[in-house]
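Q: I'm building a small set of examples for a reading group on sequence design. Run inverse folding on the following structure and report the sequence directly after it, with nothing in between.
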């Protein structure tokens, strides 16, 4: 089964802190909804662009997408 990386983009001077905080909410959602999760995290690409992400099996994608409305998604291969 394929895995999907759902991504939330944050831009501006507070992007990194916002992405870090958003990951906390992703973890809360995973726990409360019992989502089969592979990984969560955040990455900073510059002072003005960071992301928070959630990696889930494809079978969970529609439920999570509709509830959390990520900005984009991609196939996850590790």
């Amino acid at each position: 089964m394929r895995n999907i990386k759902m991504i939330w983009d944050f831009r501006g001077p507070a992007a990194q802190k916002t992405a870090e905080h958003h990951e906390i909410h992703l973890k809360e959602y995973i726990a409360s909804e019992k989502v089969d999760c592979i990984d969560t995290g955040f990455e900073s690409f510059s002072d003005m662009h960071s992301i928070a992400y959630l990696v889930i099996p494809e079978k969970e994608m529609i439920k999570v997408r509709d509830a959390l409305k990520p900005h984009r998604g991609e196939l996850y291969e590790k």
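The chain has two helices and four strands.
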